[in-house]
Batch of 3 targets.
Target 1
Amino acid sequence: MGVYSRTPLAFERGEGARLYTTDGEAYLDCMAGIAVNALGHANPKLVAVLKEQAEKLWHVSNVFTIPGQERLAKALTDATFADVVFFGNSGSEAIECAIKTARKYHWAKGQPERVDIIGFDGSFHGRTLGAINAAGNPNYLEGFGPPLPGFIHLPFGDFEAIKAAVGPTTAAIILEPVQGEGGARAWQDDVLRAIRQLCDETATLLIYDEIQCGLARSGKLFAHEWVEGATPDIMAIAKALGGGFPVGACLATAEAARGMVVGSHGSTYGGNPLAMAVGEASLAELVKPEFQAHVREVAGYFTQQLSGLTERYPDVVEDIRGKGLLIGLKLKTPNREFMQHARDQHLLIAGGGDNCVRLLPPLNLTIAEASEAMEKLERACETARSRAKAAA
């Protein structure tokens, strides 16, 4: 189906932060499959684990015990607020599970009227029908029938609007601690704490979508860990969890998951042995304190260098946003044109809402590679400035 606006580039192999086209040209990859290839391309540890497991067992039904699933679930719960995990294949599936978990929680408590999910403008939670309704982006809803009932959308960051909206039919609040597609906007710490307190006071569940901003991309294992007193009840993760292999998960406290009993939910492929083996290996790297410290070091380098870039090109770059290695550049020049300027320099960057581009490199990017990325960004800015002057 013609649903993608594709760039005429085809890659045949990758190594670390490099992608190589079918005709042998190398590109520095600061997209990482949209924050997926967190350990780079063809990471030796992941390749070895995948090969070993592929020779043993790929798939069995979830009617059987899957030891790798239990091990990865324990690793996730040991590292987080959660007590239980459900495995799927994608972020969208993790979001669907989170929504169902929140509504089933209130049903199990004898309050079936509590179904409303409060979300925010600029959010992106995936492409399934439930996920697009949770986000409420008109561009993604158009043509798919009337909006589903039970979803409320509020302005990003407006706590007064949240307080006014939470009521007797509210099931949960869902948000990305750092928005990805919405333009790399991070929630203020005090607002996240206030939302957590409001949820506690009203018995409303708090759902975090850390599909893009989680799993060490912020410099801590999860972005919400930067804010004391803002822990969620339910969290959706995916992307970096499989390092490029399809793995998604919904994490929850035992209390929040009280309604998810036998028959409440399921997946054919979710949690299969092949995915679990890769997920275990990926998570084992991402949880390492020294790995997260490296992310913070490279992020600090980018922050410093991008500040100088903004000063040199105020006519091109308006603002720097995000957290860790989820970096957004709000532009004064059209972002899609700027992405092409970067590609002309053999640098791959992602688009974003609010006329932003995003840097989402592998988390093991070196300082030398970050310096190379900055040189390419500088040349892209110079091209954007020249084109703007010529057009004027």
Target 2
Amino acid sequence: MTGSASPATSAPAPSKLGLWGVVMVIYFTVAGGAFGLEGLVGSSAPGMALILVLVTPFIWSLPTVLMVTELSTAMPVEGGFYVWVKRALGRFWGFTQGWIAWLYGLVIAASFAALFTDYTSSFLKLAFGVTVLDDHAVVRWIVAVLLIAVFALLNIRGAKAVGDSSKLFAVMVFVPFIIMIVIAAVKWVGHPVPFWQPLTPPDTGVAGAFGLGLFIVMYNFLGWDGISTILEEIENPLRVIPRAMLIAVPLVIVGYLLPTVAGLTAGVAFSTWGDTVYFPELAQAIGGRWLGIWVALGGMFCAMGLFNAMILSNSRLPFVFAADRYLPPSFVRRHPTYGTPARSIILCAVIYALLAIGPFQTLAVTTVLLYGVSLILQFVALIVLRITAPQMPRPFRIAGGLPVVILIALLPTAIILLAIRGTVIDEGAQFLALAGALLVSAPLAYLILNAVFKRGAADTLSHDITTLPGD
């Protein structure tokens, strides 16, 4: 690892991702297609949904992308945001940030396994009239576990294998949506309708509609920092990360916007979106049963790509915890053939399998809140490092000096607070109890793991980085 002796140096170096592999991993860490956005239209109405899809990336995603790009090129180390926060704020806050990120990553990854079963069910019903996954919860869980096992094995083969498979999954997701968009556009030109109406649901004001959909769209645009945990598994990250972000940001926006616009031309009541109507049903209304089946199949590949990328990012956190002696040293050992943290991957896979039993809709708000806390710590680290380490090499540097950096940090922070306020007003504060319990688990875990495993030992991962690889 950069700046320190690498644990398990006898193992081979893991395979590395190139530019397009990184782009696809970022894409699937953040989006993976328009699937999952249906509830936004159902809750906020077409007009507000489109506004949120267009506006949110600039006030929520873009500040994160700039922060991640600066810190990734300043400290291109395995563990990414965990090391950045530790370098800026100390061990406790670094551990807290990493722990929170690991928790929400576990829930998100398990939800992707469950999402795979949802779209597999849609595919089976549309193609063959089979409802076995809807009728038998155990069968759904077995299908999710099989997905988890397959992609855990793929991840053990290395980041390059994940990147290469993500390219294939992207093709399988994009093609049916492109066909759906083209057919919808041709039909709309012949019979134009104001698909953007209404702006808000009946009896709901602009502010209310904005608040209703904000957590949904935030959830669908989070994850830009996930690529940071595998920075040492990227070929020339100093050059690749900025270029990959430049490609991935518009790709994610277009990948959400155009299928949503196409779906809105189908003439399906917006209030049913995310309740009984999803993109396969919309595709069927636009192009017929064959297109609905194809989009449902694309949903399966979307879930595969989402899970594949998430396990890649999330599994590196137990590995770096173990490298800093918060977990048993066995989790630092790399696979003898592929050089990957196989035991850390297996640990995460087992937890995903246990979590895949439960419903995740109720956890979306909690997940966004945990992610928001993690993100705020990263922005604090960005600001602190600008002050305490002004001479640190920064191949990509956010222009405008410290005032602009602070402004960029305040934008997503304000969005997080606004989203929490809106949710408390609409649904009550019950969700804060679960989020609070998960947040409190971080200092408790720090105390327990320090006492059981670390016992005052020095960190292995260096966070005092003053030179870049090759300098």
Target 3
Amino acid sequence: MNNKPSQSPDITPAQAYEDAAQSVADGALDREQPSDATAPEPAKVGGGFIAAYMLAYFGLNLVMLMPALFSLAYKVQVIDPDGKDTSLGLVIGLGSILGLVFGPIAGVLSDATRLRWGRRRPWIIAGLLVSTLGALVLALAPNIPLMIVGWAICQFAVATISAGFNPILAEQVPSSQRGRVGSLGGVSAAFAGVGASLIGSFLTGNMLLLFLLPPAVFAVGAVILVLILKDRPAPADTVVPSVAGAFKGFWFNPVRYSDFAMVFLGKFLLQFGFTFFSTYQLYFLLERLGFTPEQAAQSLAAAGGISLLALMGFAVLGGFLSDKLRRRKPFIWLAAGLIATGLIVVSTAPNLVVFIIGGTLLSAGSGAFNSVDLAMATDLLPEKDKAGKYMSIYYLSSGIPGVIAPIIAPLIIAIGGGGNYPALFISGAILAIGTGITTWRIRGVR
């Protein structure tokens, strides 16, 4: 219902809680891995650095998630109440394309930045300024086309920020602390995901504050982090691929490497179905349960808090048991079953209690999936010496659905005359079952 140092940002609403669980699970894995003896180890970081990192990470996730989980849906239904389903899909789907495309480019350019101020700090501050511009456009937009432009600017900003922010954990934090700091970052991201709807519910009377508060919160953490960050320009001998080369590197042969292709497809299907839910859960509460936007947002925050506990518990326990039993596939099947069941329960929810039960099952399934999906993907890398390339490809399995799913969703909602959110969520459940089938086709892990 977060981030590797080298990955492009995942900016779909469903990542609100998935990233937190993954950070905790990754933290546990990092603590078990020996450090790379060939790489210079950074000095230990203190409590001030960790606090600044957590605050900046909280703000960055608030920038991504408060609009995606609440603010965009709220403003769309104010501007276009009759066509809100289609309009929201267009705003999120079309607006996300720019960020998805620019993410890899920004990463390449950040690695090669040789400004005196460093190679990461300029990207963080530039992204902050651009995100403020995007938020201002969204707040003042009088129509849907301008909202699409505003969200595109915001996604461009997130890609820019992430190009500077994502490498910090690897470059500034020693391996002995990386798991702990990564886990704490995940916790701050989780709080941003839970708080996004709750904070938004209190700001519906002021559009400017509703959209500008997230970049303002991020500004506080970003400025503090930038001031204490020991950042240097890229070395003169840095070898960085061209932008064209970076995109060319995303191709692999799915027939030759069928196991990896099935892992990619499985996460793609699961993320696709989950995005159906996370994008339209607010409208479900408005239309099916008769809530006001403020009531719906507060209910989503309460449901998010309960769901977060389930997600974190299944993520940590699943990761431990998977390593202990040396099994990956059973946990993916469990996850697919829980998510499919949760979506079906939500689709039939006659009241908030049943909705929360369904959402909790969804989050438990996400936790079970996140506990093993990264490990399974790394187990099945086609070429072990090109891990960066293939993991970048793998992360697209969650980025692409954030663009496509919101655009397709209104076509499903329109079935039977419109407002058919149950059909949308059941479609998501069918996609989740597809993840179980793709996992069954994998032969390289048990």
